[in-house]
Write a structure and sequence with these properties.
The protein contains 13 helices and 34 strands. β16 and β17 form a beta hairpin. Strands 5, 6, 7, 8, 9, 10, 11, 12, 13, 14, 15, 16 and 17 form a 13-stranded antiparallel β-sheet that branches. The chain is globular and about 80 Å long. The protein folds into 2 domains: 205 residues, Glycoside hydrolase, family 65, N-terminal domain (Beta-galactosidase, Chain A, domain 5), CATH 2.70.98; 444 residues, Glycosyltransferase, CATH 1.50.10. It is of the alpha+beta class. Helix content is 25%, strand content 25%.
């Protein structure tokens, strides 16, 4: 399939953060540019639509000089204002060029930029303004992986109001039109203007960029010919309110929730064939498309403020669920997709993309998310609609995902083009034994079995609510059998040397434990899969120095042979992983450890203006008092942006069971927080207040308003699922 090298690439990817790039995103289109607004062809910069770079150069010069950066402001994730001035000239010429330059840019299936040049010169002057423009139509993955080799020049033509670029790539005709609101002198790859500026005068120009694929013109959201419009509203009937109405005196938590909500809205995608079902892209810049696992976990995290996204994600994934066995895409009946790519297709319809299914965890997570929706009290007709897809997913788990009949879901790629590792740690080098040697497949990951257990329980609960006892009994028995086997096969007993035991990272192809200490075992807590004693041992590992960097959980303990704090999955810190484990620790009753992890996440967000990056380097807080940036981290990234919302749920101890008339609340507050009020959750408005400014001091008072009919608050955590 087109672009199949993306699954197996193992080299360095373009270091967006290290280049100081500004990222603007809008659905499946995004733009990377330097801090002065220039798009430079020698970098990873560009305007990308449909996984192709439709604009590879947009460089502004004034009187032959580039613009130096004075500042950049992002009004929202799809727009920014760049402020600068022409670069300095020799002392003798300082009287010239006293100019201020504003570039107001907006992205949305194209690009719109307003350039304003303002004179602070005491005399009239004439200036030469030039834009160097190019479109190389490079594949996004080639740009990401730094392997762009221009396949011959694009065709250029001049039009009355701008430039036209075109090229055929893999039999597809790609086109870019760059238009100008002011008449320009055109030459190959250049637009230029002669500008007369009086003292305090200014000159304005609007540049529009439109793209076309195989003769289909893609209508941009921002239109050339006027000022940039405010950020568009998504074309859906119901837009999730992911900017939660959180009232708290903890400024760091409040800022993290607001910024995360804004980032999530920027990452929302709509399928024009199903405009009422929003989904979420995994992250910018390289993952602006639907990923099954990422969308499911993000939806689970955002449940505390809105269930609309979860419903949209489940409906979309159900429509695209596997039906046949196709080795090249790893499709199997009942399997939930890994990701969609468009590869030159002139459509934003999900069903028209290339679907790849190589993931072991999205399928059980589909059922887990439906179970969560059921517990949060979504209408019965929504559960009815999605239940057939959930049952197909469960059949995949027990009949296809379990490849050797031992009760565990394993993965082994079916094509050389597929992902070698198919859990959330899907880097090529993620699966390692303690001595650093690679684990050979098929691989059964510990957290995948936990998700399967939770899926079995979720389906049983739905059946019990509907008095379908045979179905409930089947899945309860399946869960019990899995728990018994898991405690035997995955548990690494360290009682002989007096240290806590732990859950093995995985079982390898000969059913040998991969005894590497990783954060994955934290995903196994609080479901009922482990005994209370085993959970206590796991919790001890999760707060110990080898795994906990002080900024969150390392993916791999620093005592392991393959540990590298600047590897993607062998020692880095992923905020979503830390947030998820904090939630599971709280669910299992380990409040101190849970709050400790939440506070470490808030500390990270403080260093990034409220935003959580995709991942950090695993350098410890003791070694470096600020989080160490991971150079290829996505910003924004969906499950990182959603992590503060899951942290709020964790602090509230919020576990609804609406079908049984109970909303469980067991709140704690982090240091420095005495008030937390969350408006308009799916189960009402929830308020917590305490005296003393610390979760360890005082007894929080709880007020719940607008609960679902027949529901009462139970101020204690529910029993672990069994």
């Amino acid at each position: 399939m087109t672009g199949s090298g993306q699954w197996t690439y193992s080299g360095e990817i373009a270091r967006v953060g290290a280049e100081g790039a500004v990222t603007l995103v809008d659905e499946q289109s995004f733009c990377l540019a330097s801090a002065n607004g220039d798009i430079l062809r020698a970098s990873s910069h560009g305007l990308f639509v449909f996984d192709n770079r439709f604009l590879s150069e947009l460089r502004l010069t004034i009187d032959g000089r580039p613009v130096e950066t004075l500042g950049v402001s992002s009004e929202d994730p799809s727009g920014a204002t760049f402020v600068g001035r022409p670069e300095s000239v020799p002392e003798a010429d300082r009287g010239e060029g006293r100019l201020l330059v504003f570039r107001r840019r907006r992205v949305g299936r194209g690009l719109l930029e307003e350039i304003v040049i303002r004179s602070h010169d005491p005399v009239n002057r004439t200036h030469h303004v030039e834009l160097e423009v190019d479109a190389d139509f490079a594949d996004m993955f080639a740009v990401k992986e730094r392997r762009v080799h221009r396949r011959g020049p694009s065709l250029h033509s001049f039009e009355p109001d701008g430039l036209h670029f075109s090229a055929r790539r893999d039999g597809i005709q790609l086109e870019t039109r760059v238009t100008s609101s002011e008449p320009a002198a055109s030459s190959p790859g250049r637009l230029s203007w002669t500008v007369e500026l009086a003292p305090r005068g200014e000159w304005a120009l609007t540049i529009g960029v439109r793209v076309a694929v195989d003769g289909v013109d893609i209508e941009p959201r921002p239109q050339c010919g006027g000022a940039p419009e405010p950020h568009h509203e998504l074309g859906v009937t119901v837009v999730p309110d992911l900017v939660a109405e959180l009232d708290t005196d903890h400024s760091t938590l409040g800022r993290a929730v607001r910024r995360g909500g804004a980032d999530l809205r920027a990452l929302l995608l709509t399928d024009p064939s199903h405009p009422d079902d929003p989904v979420v892209a995994a992250g910018a810049p390289w993952f602006m498309t639907l990923f099954g696992r990422d969308a499911l976990i993000t939806s689970l995290m955002t449940m505390v403020v809105d269930t609309t996204l979860a419903v949209g994600v489940l409906r979309t994934l159900a429509r695209l669920q596997g039906h046949a066995r196709v080795a090249e895409t790893e499709e199997e009946p009942g399997r939930i997709l890994h990701e969609i790519r468009f590869h030159d297709r002139p459509s934003f319809a999900m069903a028209e993309g290339t679907v790849y299914f190589g993931t072991a965890d999205a399928t059980p997570l589909f059922v887990v998310l439906l179970g969560e929706l059921h517990r949060w009290g979504v209408p019965e007709e929504v559960v009815d609609e999605l239940l057939p897809a959930a049952d197909l997913a469960l059949e995949w788990i027990v009949r296809i995902g379990d490849r050797d009949g031992d009760g565990y879901v394993e993965y082994e790629r079916a094509t050389p083009h597929g992902l070698a590792n198919q859990g959330w740690k899907d880097a090529w080098d993620a699966l390692r034994h303690p001595d650093g040697t690679f684990a050979e497949g098929p691989i059964a990951l510990c957290e995948v079995q936990a998700y399967c257990y939770a899926a079995f329980i979720a389906r049983a609960e739905i059946a019990e609510h509907r008095r379908d006892l045979p179905t409930a009994t089947r899945w309860r028995e399946q869960a019990a059998n899995l728990a018994e086997a898991f405690r035997r096969d995955f548990w690494v007993d360290r009682s002989a040397d007096g240290t806590p035991g732990f859950v093995a990272f995985a079982l390898d192809g000969v059913k040998r434990q991969v005894e590497t200490v990783t954060s994955n075992m934290g995903h196994c807590l609080g479901w009922g899969l482990l005994t209370p004693e085993q959970e206590a041992d796991v919790a001890a590992h999760l707060v110990a120095t080898p795994l906990h960097s002080g900024w969150g959980l390392r993916t791999m303990a620093s005592t392991m042979g393959a540990y590298d704090p600047v590897s993607y999955h062998c020692g880095s810190v992923w905020p979503h992983d830390t947030a998820f484990v904090a939630w599971r620790l709280r669910r299992a009753g380990f409040t101190d450890a849970s709050v400790h992890l939440v506070e470490s996440l808030l500390g990270v967000s403080d260093h990034f203006g409220g935003r959580l990056p995709e991942l950090l380097a695993g350098v410890s807080r003791a070694e470096l008092p600020t989080p160490a940036v991971y150079p290829t981290s996505c910003l924004p990234q969906a499950w990182a942006a959603a992590s503060p919302l899951l942290a709020v749920r964790t602090l509230l101890g919020l576990e609804p069971d609406v079908p049984n008339g109970v909303v469980h609340l067991d709140p704690v507050l982090p240091d420095g927080c005495t008030r937390l009020r969350l408006h308009h959750t799916p189960v009402g408005t929830l308020s917590v207040e305490t005296v003393g400014g610390s979760w360890g001091v005082g007894v929080p008072s709880v007020v719940a308003e607008g609960l679902p009919d027949g529901c009462v608050v139970q101020a204690a955590r529910p029993e672990t699922l069994t």
